[in-house]
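Schema walk-through. Below, the input block comes first and the output block second. Nothing else is stored per chain. Lengths vary across the set, and this one has 387 residues.
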Amino acid sequence: MTIKEHAMGLMLSQDEEMVRQTAREFAEKRLKPLAEKFDEEEAIPRELYAEAADLGFFGILIPEEFGGLGLDYTACIIVMEEIARVSAAFEVTLTVHNSLVSTALVNFCNEEQKKAWLPKLAKGEWIAAYSLSEQGSGSDAGSLRCAAAKEPDGWRLKGGKAWVSSAGIADFFIVFVSTDPANGNKGISCLAVTKGMEGMTLGKKEKKLGIRGSDTREIHFAGTRVPAFHLIGEINQGFKIAMTQLDGGRIGIAAQAVGIAQAAMEEAVSYAKTREQFGKKLAEFQATQFKLADMAVKVEAARLMTLKAARLMASGQKATQAASMAKLLASQTANQVAYDALQIHGGNGYIREFPVERYFRDARITEIYEGTSEIQRLVIAREILRG
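--- output ---
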């Protein structure tokens, strides 16, 4: 039993442990042998997403009546950590699909919209993407410029979105657009856009430092017509939807960061036990032992905070502060643990034969997307000052 399995086993229900084991088996058998290939080729075969869908991983948070598993955020982050431990690039598609898009439809769509869209998302027939950021509005999401003009039977979209995870493979996008520019973030609406709509085009695949298997692109709209049926929630209430969804999204990225950190720590432990220097195993040096001990403490603390945030979400309680705390701590932990794991590997950590090099690169994005570490601090400070 690894440190990870022991620690998780102390806190999970029998059903949650079954979900974890299913995710672990899929990750180890199907993703781990290919994770390096995903990184090198900067792509993941669609059939592997289909296999994940067959296990229910695209419908974790979707109610059973719409074809999903009907599980909660705790189950979701358990799956996300296990997948990210092997392939953060594969996991980001799952976490966006589940915690950012599927829950937005569950929480804000009417029954007809749910019936039309959720079954396809739950079965993985559609892969979903979340489109909020733009080149001129990343952290300042309220200043977005992508606009939708009202027409009698729908909307006309003009503008673009940037850094859209899964854009190249997605079939369904929720897009935040300005519908009343004079009112800033109080004039933003949320629209559903499907692949192939006239006037919608994809930019080139971004060449990224890490999570290279994840297809990230810009999307552009040139008079794209979107039916009136595709308005999610109320007009000019999109910013509220975006901010609400970010709590769940941040918990999903926290789980990703914990998975990366766990993987890096495991590699460091394994390497320290076998690598010899000055006639001794690295694990016999106190300096190495101290590094490993600090890694274990940080990973466990990040995991516990992520579980706490997920359980708050699962119980229907406000989780804004807890989500930002989890995301901040877990992303910093992933970067520090990956750094130390690479250092323990020495020169070997700097070459691609050893997976810590990939973990080191993958970890960096966790302090940037779903709100930078600086934004998380602002959110946390705002929450605690409210009392």
